[in-house]
Design goal:
The complex is a heterodimer of chains A (517) and B (251). Chain A has 517 residues and is an alpha/beta fold. Chain A folds into three domains: 244 residues, Orthogonal Bundle (MetI-like fold); 148 residues, D-Maltodextrin-Binding Protein, domain 2, CATH 3.40.190.10; 92 residues, D-Maltodextrin-Binding Protein, domain 2. In chain A, strand 6, helix 16 and strand 7 form a beta-alpha-beta unit. Chain B has 251 residues and is α/β, with parallel strands linked by helices. Helix content of chain B is 41%, strand content 24%. Chain B is built from ten helices and ten strands. In chain B, helix 5 packs across helix 6. The longest helix of chain B has 21 residues. Chain B starts with a strand and ends with a helix. Classes of the chains: A alpha/beta (517), B alpha/beta (251). The interface between A and B is medium-sized, with 18 and 26 residues.
């Protein structure tokens, strides 16, 4: 079996287990909420409209946004609970994903439940009263059994939606089959993307077929079908969940990573060091920039790599640039004071925002610096990653040089380079440690006004882990040990089209370079 | 058996029942007749609490319907209506045994009762295990009657019970029910818009119009004594039909 496919299969038990646990919990929770709600709405026409309208409204929120919104909400609730009960909880990962997916599963079950119950023949409802049933007996013995096929159809829809949407829980720190898709998209590992899609689709189809068996059994009143469908679901869920018992729960440390190749490699580098120190490690990857730091400050992850300029502008809200060393020193002092976060030190390379152009275009237009670029900007198209244009660094650079580009477009980092190569963008906001800059011989424009802050890659340690000598001592040798050339080579080995390696393999190669120095 | 006094019911601005008083004795077979909107179905449903009156008092076998537990009351009263309302997810035998099951009878007694009732309403024992959908309309209504009789009620309420059946089945089922009424010593109140059926099956006809009782008595006595043109028109109808039938068939 080829490398990427074998790597994908290795990860399957963990990803699938979490995916099943998450979707199943959301579906069960959704069912326990929406079924009583459906009964209440079927009984009361006054309640019916607002309840269905609210459920439809929730359905119109894009699923990724719904997942994202639960993170700050839970963070605030956790802080409140910490203050009142001195007992916080994790706002990252399982909980926000579970709540968002639960809300998502409510509408189809609710709508079909109401339709099923109100659709019971009035003559049969009258007969139930006439033979002397209590309202409860009427519901349980007549209305629900007759509505069961319609309700089951709703459960099937909810199951397919939930399993599909669960792939989006990866960015809020919940492992799922979405990890294949998000990581694959970042590292251009299309085998991973396809594998994630196929696994999620296969899971959804299997669940749909088994629930379909239950539905058929309910409609044709064949208990054997219902039993077979339920048994299939229980066995399937049990088989998928079994590997989870050995994952994650025993991990001593959680290593975080944002959503690009360098972060995956560095997370593997750190995880490898910790594992060699004898600790079990779990990973939370594909975190958003702001999510990652807050998760660290809250102790939900123990360690990750961030960049001094990012922390300087986004966490401390500074717009000035006092120089590389001053930024790092002030950052170290300020993060310690404010959040108890330990800045262990710089890895030894910088990954700054760098405006780059294709050499032929740069030469033809005579552009070598950002000042030159500002002159030509009205005729040029800027391509950036998804967050750059809304970051303070962009406002600082824009303020210093006064750009007025013809157009500004955001891309996934992978596609940003493609856009530059294909001419859909004339200049892009690249990353200075990216291997593709050297490989494609791109021209990095100089920053004569010093508007772009320094971006030393620094190891951040959570307040709790800062007091843990095993972790600190295992990672301290990495400080100053990673030269930018080594990082570029590692990044390129993951990003290139041909002969690409996994982030874990790149991390092992990087480790050999570090040992050789 | 049944005492109604001053019973009124309004739906919106429209009076379905307007100060109705009625007394039905043990063993009587009473027809409630009248056109649509006369209030006959509403009146029937106040007796088993399916309709709650706005005013008035209804006493069934010494018990005030307003204060009785509705489901316990209904388990003591048989109820048959035109749409039958058999439970499609239960077999014929399970449908018949539903009220005994709600009353907590043991399984053997329910099974024996279902078999007894199938024979009573003249259905073959083979239908017991079948779903209601497998039966003809007439068979379904026989099951409806059996279900209503299952818990041995003393009182039967019937709302156009045979209205949706073809004339032959209807005639047979009506005659069969009348025989059951006699044999079991039931008290029966039946709503019908068909005067011929009322005259043929019942002992006493109560004529309603716009929520009020226009006439109440044995069919023959009403025809002889009533002066109300509506009542006379209603009662004359079966007689005229019978005469025309005799002429056309040349009897």
């Amino acid at each position: 079996m080829s490398g990427p496919l074998a790597a994908a299969f290795d990860l399957l038990p963990e990803y699938l287990g979490w995916h099943v646990l998450l979707s199943l919990s959301a579906l069960v929770l959704g069912l326990t909420i929406s079924l009583p709600l459906a009964v209440a709405a079927a009984r009361s026409p006054r309640l019916r409209w607002p309840v269905l309208a609210l459920a439809s409204l929730i359905q119109t929120i894009p699923s990724l946004a719904l997942l994202a919104l639960f993170y700050p909400l839970l963070l605030a609730l956790s802080a409140l609970s910490q203050a009142v009960l001195s007992q916080g909880f994790s706002a990252l990962g399982f909980l926000p994903s579970l709540l968002a997916l639960t809300l998502y599963s409510v509408l189809p079950i609710l709508r079909n439940g109401v339709a099923g119950i109100t659709g019971v023949d009035p003559a049969i409802a009258e007969a139930a009263d006439g033979v002397g049933m209590t309202p409860r007996q009427k519901l349980l013995q007549v209305e629900l059994p007759l509505a069961a096929p319609v309700i089951m159809a709703g459960v099937r829809t909810a199951a397919v939606w939930t399993i599909g949407a669960a792939t989006l829980s990866t960015p809020v720190g919940q492992t799922s089959l979405g990890n294949y898709i998000f990581a694959g998209l970042q590292t251009e590992n299309w085998v991973f993307v396809l594998f994630g899609c196929a696994a999620s689709a296969a899971l959804a189809m299997a669940a749909d077929q088994l629930l379909g068996l239950v539905e058929t059994g309910a409609r044709t009143r064949r208990p054997a079908f219902v039993a077979a469908g339920l048994a299939g679901l229980v066995i399937g869920a049990g088989a998928a969940l079994a590997p989870l018992a050995t994952f994650g729960q025993t991990a001593a440390y959680t290593v975080g990573a944002k959503n690009f190749s360098e972060q995956y490699i560095l997370a593997e580098l750190i995880a490898g060091r910790l594992e060699r120190a004898g600790a079990a490690v779990s990973r939370k990857e594909d975190l958003g920039s702001a999510v990652a730091y807050r998760a660290l400050a809250a102790g939900e992850i123990d360690v990750y790599v961030d960049y001094s300029g990012t922390l300087w502008t986004n966490v401390l809200g500074r717009a000035d640039n006092p120089g590389r060393k001053a930024v790092l020193d002030q950052l170290t002092a300020e993060l310690k004071r404010r959040d108890g976060v330990l800045v262990l030190g710089s890895l030894g390379f910088e990954n700054a925002y760098a405006f780059v152009m294709r050499p032929d275009r740069a030469q033809a237009l005579g552009i070598a610096s950002l000042a030159d670029l500002a002159q030509e900007a009205p005729r040029m198209k800027l391509g950036s990653d998804l967050e750059f244009l809304s970051r303070p660094e962009w406002r600082a650079v824009d303020g210093a040089y006064g750009f007025a580009f013809r157009s500004e477009r955001s891309f996934q980092p992978t596609f940003m380079y493609r856009a530059l190569a294909g001419g859909e963008a004339d200049v892009i906001s690249a990353f200075s440690s990216d291997g593709r800059i050297a490989a494609d011989r791109l021209v990095v424009l100089s920053d004569p006004k010093g508007a772009i802050p320094p971006y030393d890659a620094v190891i951040l340690v959570s307040p709790k882990a800062a007091a843990d000598p095993r972790l600190v001592e295992a990672l301290r040798p990495l400080v100053g040990a990673v030269p930018v050339e080594a990082m570029r080579a590692a990044n390129y080995s993951v990003d290139r089209d041909a002969g690409k390696v996994t982030p874990a393999e790149a991390a092992r190669a990087l480790e050999r370079v570090i040992a050789g120095n | 058996m049944i005492e109604l006094a001053g019973v009124s019911k309004r739906y919106g601005g429209h009076a379905a029942l307007d100060d109705v008083g009625l007394s039905v004795g043990e063993g009587e077979f009473v027809a409630l007749v009248g056109g649509s909107g006369s209030g006959k179905t509403t009146l029937l449903k106040t007796i088993n609490g399916l309709v709650r009156p706005d005013a008035g008092r209804i006493v069934v076998a010494g018990e005030d319907v307003a204060t009785a537990s509705p489901h316990l009351l209904r388990r003591r009263i048989g109820y048959v209506f035109q749409e039958v309302g058999l439970f499609p997810h239960l077999s014929v035998a399970e449908n018949i045994g539903i009220t005994p099951r709600l009353l907590g009878w043991d399984k053997a007694r329910i099974a024996a009762r279902a078999a007894e009732l199938l024979a009573l309403v003249d259905l073959p024992p083979g239908v017991a295990a079948r779903p209601p959908a497998a039966l003809s309309g007439g068979q379904r209504q026989r099951v409806g009657v059996a279900r209503a009789l299952a818990a041995e009620p003393r009182l039967m309420l019937m709302d156009e019970p045979f209205g949706a059946l073809d004339p032959v089945t209807r005639d047979a089922l009506g005659a069969d029910y009348r025989a059951l009424h006699e044999r079991l010593g039931l008290t029966t109140i039946m709503v019908t818009h068909d005067m011929t059926e009322a005259v043929l099956l019942t002992d006493r006809v109560v004529v309603l119009k716009t929520g009020r009782i226009l006439a109440d008595g044995a069919p023959g006595a009403l025809l002889a004594q009533s002066s109300d043109p509506d009542v006379l028109a209603l009662l004359e109808a079966p007689k005229r039909q019978a005469q025309r039938l005799a002429e056309r068939l040349g009897a």
